[in-house]
Amino acid sequence: MIAGAAEERRRFLDWGVFHVEHEFLVIWRRYQRALKQRNSLLRAGPAFDESLIVPWEVELGRTGALIDQWRRAYLDALLPFLKEQAALLLPELGYVELRYRCGWAENEDLAGVLASQRFRDQSRGHTTSGVHRADWSISFQLAPQREHLSRGQEKLTALVCVLAQAWLDARHRGEWPIVCLDDLASELDQVHQAAVVNSLRATPAQVLISGTELPRVLEHQPIRMFHVEQGQLTPLL
Q1: Which structural domain range is residue 210 located in?
Q2: Using an 8 Å Cβ cutoff, are 80 and 171 in contact?
Q3: I want to staple 185 with a disulfide (CB 3.0 to 4.6 A). Which of 39, 178, 199, 215 is the partner?
Q4: Is 225 helix (H, G, I), strand (E, B) or coil?
């Protein structure tokens, strides 16, 4: 989610928006349908009828504006929790900032942008602007670019995002989601493993941690441990 393609970050963002905005899924599907239709017309050849593509651009502009508005509101709500979790898990990197790019020129009408880019998009065979091209990033005072992060810091940054989303979801719905973490000890030293565990202990969430061995930071914690092999679960503690 931190160093990978923008698609993963959009999925994380839209998953959060989906649980806040009840109309999101319907609008998102309408946007995807319009995007598919516009792309199909762009690939139809140089002689396509412009009257066929204009309605889809209007639909992309209308639904895209809603999705963009909801995404921005969600990130605004998420930011305080991001700052809180970053201060717990990565205090050595300083204050945190969140950046969002909507996928087209800021303060421009998306339908107008699509109309102006129609022939360029036709040469490329797909729509190059819209909420499907959006991205967001998290940066730190002492690590302004993601390339400045170590592998362990990338993992902790992803955990900051996931835990912040869990806090926001709990605040919105009034109940905690189940938190699932795989291989906590990988790429994290004892200090940062303890920071993650302490952050989770401050919540009423049910937490599932999987791995090939018990992390040392959990040895004296009130936990239940199970061994899973070939689909069979055996209680150990």
Answers
A1: 178-237
A2: no
A3: 215
A4: coil
